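Lab notebook: predicted structure, single chain.

Context: the supervisor wants predicted structures on file for every construct in the current expression panel, including those that have not yet been purified. This is the next one on the list. No modifications to the sequence; it matches the entry in the shared construct table.
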Amino acid sequence: MLAASPGNAQASKVEELRAEIKKQQDKIDFKVTDTLYIDLLNDLAKEIRFYNADSLLSLSEKALEYSKKADYTRGQSMAYLRQGDYYSDKGERDAAINNFTKALILSRNMEDNALTLRIINNLATEYSYNGDYAKSLNNYLEGVEMAELKGEKEMLSILNENIAALYESQEDHEQALIFYQKAKKLNDEIGNDISSAETMSNLASLYAEMGKLDYAMFNVNRSISIFEKHRVMDWLAYAYETKGKVYLKQNKYQWALYWYKQGELIHQELDDDRGKIHLYNGIAEAYLGQGIDSLSQKYAMEAYDISNQIKFPEGIRDCAYTLYKINKKNGDFEKSLAFHEIFQDITETLHRTENKKSLTLLKTRAEYDQQKQELIEANQKALAKQRGLIYAAIIVLIIFAIITFFIKRAEKIQKRLNAELQAKKEILEEHEAALVDSNDTKTKLFSIIGHDLRGPIGSLQGLLQMFSDGEMTKDEFFQFIPKLKSDVDHIYFTLNNLLSWGNSQMNGATIKPSVFALESLVDDNINLLSELAKSKSIKIVSELSGNTLIWSDSNQIDIVIRNLISNALKFTPDNGMITITAKEKNDLWEVSVRDTGVGMDKVTIEKLFKKNSNITTYGTNNEKGTGLGLSLCKEMVEKNGGTIWVESVLRKGSTFFFTLPKAEDKYSQAS
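Prediction complete. Output recorded below exactly as produced.
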């Protein structure tokens, strides 16, 4: 049995791969072009090679299709390699070589050494099945040289083992033994029990052919214990068959049959036609030795049919000879003669081929070694010729390196100075921007204080002065109480907005979100502004349900609601109506404050929320405003994760909308 590529198809490994493939397929963002998924398909195809050939082909075809869609070269190369294995096992040599060649071209383009070595090994093996021993050995030797150069000891062991198999097929046992021993030594260095056991199984088969049955039994027993321990079933079946072969050489037919049958039990779970040929023919010979001719003929015919099916001449020859002996013993001389003629024809062909094989192998190896030696000598001459130039080049390189060092050092210092200068420039620009913002804020604050607060406070001061100087009676003063209250309310409201806005501009507002009921905040502000609404006979209606839970800074949202209701009161004429609603929009609440006021034109709407805009207008009863309210609302809504906008029609009214996060998800994250 030739050495396989590293790893063997075992049930546990197959189940692991299927589970991982299912895991990938269950992912939400799963795509068949994912390279990990393609690799898993190729790995599973490899593991089931000797268990389910049809699935091997199906998986490799899918992997090839998806790899081409993903432009994944390694996936394509692996898929061609797996398809080559399938056609090799089916005896379709041309298809196998074609697929191996495609895989090799792709792996070499990628410069993937490990994959290239694996493909070279399989291609060389296929050439040997096809009878092209020169190409086979040439590929093996090329692989050996590459594996030695790249330090790929595992593949080097496999390649040496397969070269040994070539010599064994010619009955050049001494040469075969040399290469098996090289493989064994490499396996000992690697420390891989399974690889060592594979080599020992092949050695046992060779020793059996050489008549060294004690050596054969020692090696096969050691390999069996390792395969049984690791449950490497395809190689265990081969080891059982080899042990049966050792007993068959000793004419111990009962024991031979026992171990052949152990191999047959395992083959019931395998899909390995090539492996069955020698096994079934061995069983046939064991039954023939016991005198059970009917079973002997059954197994020999089955092995003979498989050999013809996969076009395996050596199998056809061996099985034909067994069938010749069975039919001769049973007196069916016509069939016996027919099988003997088949045996003779193939033997003569193989003998002629064997002579050619021997000459070809020796010639190819000699040519390969000669070419290698010529290359070594040519390299040595070239090195000797160039040594002087190399020394001169080294001196030049040293001088160049010193110059380069100083240049790089100067560049590094310059880069560091430039970086420091750039950092200082950015800091100055940040300070300049901060100063500009600070000056803008200060200017706006003074403007508001001078224009919107000084007037009402001056009026209040004048009235109080007139009252204290006796220029106004008590009754006359009381007549001004509603106006005084309105002015004080305006001053208080303006100061609140001014302080909140100034704090956010000067220091940056700090958001402290929590869960709160929006309907409670709305009700509080309706109560707070109820007297102003009453004075204009305006009805304020809250249509909020009892479960409008918000995740925001309640103090800031309180200011937003107060400003929007206050604005609505300001611009709604007497006997008007203000309606406050909230609708669920996915993970947000959409809040609206609708009035039946004077409305706005498009020009005013466009300027309304712009930065540094300061739109100050008078209400329906000449109520004053600071122009800060909507700017403050916009800042606070956006800092709490929402947005604000307005819809308005002149003389029909305005509706201000803003959104805020729902409490459920945000609150669970915060917890």
